[in-house]
Amino acid sequence: MSRFIEVPARMLPPDTLTALLEAFVTRQGYDTTDTGEGMSGWVAELRQQLDRHELIIAHDLELEMTEVMTLAQWRSFGRELADDEEEGDY
């Protein structure tokens, strides 16, 4: 069984999805004044990116953590994890 699963955004309660997207905005260091609408502007943009499959929501079954990631982050994360497993670091 895989340690990570992709979670469809539609499966999350709206408040939970908003909180995940706000955490992503904060973690990425987005300037919330860029949109003119503050955090809600970024959250709306990220919802559109989820709809276009440019972002994914991934849940780590081992750590019981859920994160929003870009596809590049997901691919990089997957390679880093595989490297750690090969080296016995994990």
TrEMBL record:
<protein>
    <recommendedName>
        <fullName>YheU family protein</fullName>
    </recommendedName>
</protein>
<dbReference type="InterPro" id="IPR010648">
    <property type="entry name" value="UPF0270"/>
</dbReference>
<dbReference type="InterPro" id="IPR036685">
    <property type="entry name" value="YehU-like_sf"/>
</dbReference>
<comment type="similarity">
    <text>Belongs to the UPF0270 family.</text>
</comment>
<dbReference type="Pfam" id="PF06794">
    <property type="entry name" value="UPF0270"/>
</dbReference>
